[in-house]
Amino acid sequence: MSVPHGKQEITDPVEEMLKKTGCINHHYKVQECIAETQDWRKCQRQVSDFRKCMSEYEEKRKQGLVT
Question: Is the pLDDT of residue 1 over 80?
Fold first, then answer.
């Protein structure tokens, strides 16, 4: 099926990967904080939450619980 020019949705491969991990909302919170504060150092709670989520996903992946 072809999609008319201008109607095709562009997908970001990083977002697609993050959706699979279940950590996409944490990623968005980091981005929002950085956009609001203009300083990633002020977003350490959000970064920490995102890292924890990704670590938990990696652990599950290693155990074969997720793909």
Answer: no
